[in-house]
Design a protein that fits this description.
2 copies of one chain form a homodimer. By secondary structure, chain A is α+β, with helices and mostly antiparallel strands. Chain A has 18 helices and 18 strands. Residues about 1-5 of chain A have low confidence and may be disordered.
Chain lengths: ~475, ~475
């Protein structure tokens, strides 16, 4: 297969020239100290940190365009950075160059309440946005867990617990402002709710991980804050029974807002962490959004479905404190993992399969963990067939690291064999680039490479990510 | 701007050679008679019909790939054809070549009920699909009115009355099989509900109007047939009041499945056509999907909102016959237009604006029609800010044709000035290609052209469509 040259550091003289020009234009907004460079490299995975040569803090689209134009002149890589909460080495700079931190571009530029949309800069985090929106009656529903930046969520095609009801980033972005590899500013769409006018550049940029351009403004679709929320939890004798209940719920047309699976290992972790005393069997955590009568009816319907399929009693509530109590184990997932193995590093990974294959995939994965001598609680966005394994790894143990890597590889191939994908929501970055050949037909990968080459012929936009080298 | 050579018929010798090779492979599935060629050219608009040199009826992806490979060798255009119900000359062959009719590729390849998806060939129509699904408890919700083929709906990014609840084609296609300009078969995705693994080639092909490849199989997301439906109709003193009620309904989080605006001219047409005796003022037609209790609650909530905003009584029902009766005017829209002006040709056009600008855009458009001496009832998918003008035109009157064209041009620029789009759901084709420069920033259009050129360097895939020449 004919691929672009994805390797290579810029010529040192060219790099020096670009940094000098950036410094002249941006002054102390260009940082070259080791500490700040290290802070902006990958830190959350087993991948080695690869800091850039400098970190730039632009304040506007024009700043980003000027910086990219300078880097483009000399073939210097640019690596966009939001909050650094991605899991696949997206923010590493394997070929050096300049990290472009969007942290200071954190303005909320407009809220159009009647249209149910807003325009934000990429450095706004989802919590800051929802805080800002609180009195508008609207909210931004995509919730990947971390308080990620909206720009990062766009670029990794983030989703999370609400996706089964509200969709993923691809469904909630109306338009983008993007700085291309040539330093040109483009708008990928307009504020109309829908359009059939041209190629869908918005969706092309969503999930492109900064390899086709840098997002500098985002028009987001917002949703109405529901009048009422009901939330609850239910035990199941097996992962299969929990998955069957999920399928039946979706088929019955119940508009579930969140439906989360936790395996027995994850429940044990939560018990250790918060002394919850939950039975250590699979659990489903659910949330319904609607009118007061509607969310009560939906919870009752789900309770009946669960009972038919072998589930325990469905305990649910609508008051906020009660809901928080019922969902506490789910909220604690990230930190609870450490209770299973204090001092370990968490290595999160995700795959996604058709929901009819989910139980099989989870059960095989549990067996694989056991055979591999690894600890990895499982949490799933089960309505979408997406699940996470939060591996707890002793970073100092080379043998365990090797077993971890081999497990992750088997997990991906297991999902692919079930018509699934190597990542439902974490993205490709460096960590999963090697799987794209197995996931996509060779012709499809050629099309991706052709697009990359057409839009970034010098390969300066976040090189070494997504497309296999 | 640097654009690909979008002009030019193939060399006659090359065309003859390609047709001979196609004939040798496909026998009488390659038709060259004038009648069949004419039947496959544009017939529904003011654009002149431009038939291809031949019409091919492939039976499989392999057939399409072989045909495209033959045409690619000799630089012969290929024009995909579904049911010919598009409105912007998408099926014309301005540079000749071969129309590829997908009509015989009308198999439903798989229905995965537990996963809520199905795989179909492009020639399946939406009604045939829903007929097939009827006993599965699932349905395919996108409804553009015409019984269009699924392949055509993919290619024009179709939507329609259900989009406010269920989304458009971009939201309901999980994956595509596509024959590229080189005759290569690619899959743009897998059956997993979501993925972050690579560029979103699915969404790039949805709405590309066959200019980047020919769709030969489609994996569609399906929805559960609702337990209950409530439907009703409500009068409003003005288009503004109807739009305000729509905005309030969406903001209240009422999960309306359809919300359709009809202006007073359209109501008059329906009265003439079916003797309905409706008051000739703006109407909203609504439908809610959910549980029995849920759809009753939603209808009552809407009634309260409408009453607060000056609407008349909201008459609604849940029984099928009653619902059909209440919605009869809406169902009659297309044919009712002729009652206003018997013998006229219908020239449909659409634009889409942010919903906060919809009333203003509709009212200005009504005034423009009056000043231009034109007859054009208006129907809107008001929840999306999308509306149609069904112009009724005397084709023999050159002056009226000129006024019609001038009106359509002003309509587009009016929508663009309100942050809208030149087409919400009809697509670009030949008719709206000239507006893409005004709609998109020049840089964005350059990106589209770069993609087109990278994926179809010889410009054989439906040339003369979408991108301005």
């Amino acid at each position: 297969m004919d691929r672009p040259a994805l390797n290579g550091r810029p010529d040192p003289a060219a790099l020096a020239r670009a940094l000098e020009r950036l410094s002249a234009r941006f002054g102390d907004r260009l940082a070259t100290g080791q500490a700040v460079r290290d802070q902006h490299a990958n830190t959350l995975t087993l991948l080695a940190a690869e800091p850039a040569d400098a970190v730039l803090f632009p304040g506007s689209t024009e700043d980003v365009a000027a910086a990219v134009a300078i880097c483009a002149d000399d073939g210097v890589p640019v690596v966009p950075y939001g909050t650094g909460t991605s899991f696949e080495g997206h923010v590493n700079a394997p070929f050096g160059g300049v990290t472009i931190s969007l942290a200071r571009m954190n303005g909320i530029l407009a809220v159009h309440a009647a249209d149910g949309d807003c325009v934000v800069e990429p450095g706004v985090t989802r919590k800051a946005l929802n805080e800002h929106l609180r009195d508008s009656g609207l909210f931004f529903p995509v919730d990947p867990g971390a308080d990620a930046s909206i720009g990062g969520m766009v670029s990794t095609r983030a989703s999370g617990t609400n996706a089964v009801r509200y969709g993923t980033m691809k469904d909630n972005v109306l338009a983008l402002r993007v700085v291309t590899a040539a330093g040109t500013v483009i708008d990928t769409g307009r504020r109309a709710r829908k359009s059939s006018a041209g190629y869908d550049l918005t969706r092309l940029m969503v999930g492109a991980e900064g390899t086709l351009g840098i997002v500098t403004a985002i028009t987001l679709k917002l949703s109405g804050i529901p009048e009422a929320i009901s939330a609850g939890v239910c035990t199941f004798p097996s992962v299969e029974a929990a998955c069957d209940a999920t399928i039946a719920t979706v088929q019955a047309g119940l508009p579930v807002a969140r439906i989360e699976l936790m395996d027995s290992v994850q429940v044990r972790a939560c018990n250790l962490y918060s002394h919850l005393g939950l039975p250590e069997v699979p659990h489903l955590f659910l949330e319904f959004h609607g009118t007061t009568a509607g969310v009560a009816e939906q919870a009752e319907r789900f309770g009946a479905i669960a009972a038919e399929l072998g589930g325990g009693a469905f305990t649910w509530a609508t008051r906020s404190e009660e809901r928080s109590r019922l969902w506490q184990a789910r909220h604690d997932v990230f930190w609870a993992g450490f209770a299973l193995r204090p001092g370990a590093k968490t290595v999160p990974t995700d795959v996604c399969v058709p929901i009819s294959r989910l139980a099989e995939c989870v059960v095989q994965t549990q067996a694989d963990l056991a055979e591999s001598g690894l600890v990895g609680p499982i949490v799933g966005h089960v309505g979408d067939g997406n699940f996470h394994v939060g591996l707890l790894v002793d970073e100092g143990d080379a043998d365990e690291l090797a077993r971890t890597r081999a497990f992750m590889e088997r997990l991906v191939h297991r999902a692919l064999a079930m018509e699934g994908t190597c990542t439902g929501e974490h993205g490709v970055g460096q960590g999963k680039a090697k799987y794209l050949v197995a996931e996509h037909s060779p012709g499809a990968l050629d099309v991706m490479v052709a697009i990359k080459r057409a839009l970034d012929p010098r390969n300066i936009m976040n090189p070494g990510k997504m497309l296999p080298g």
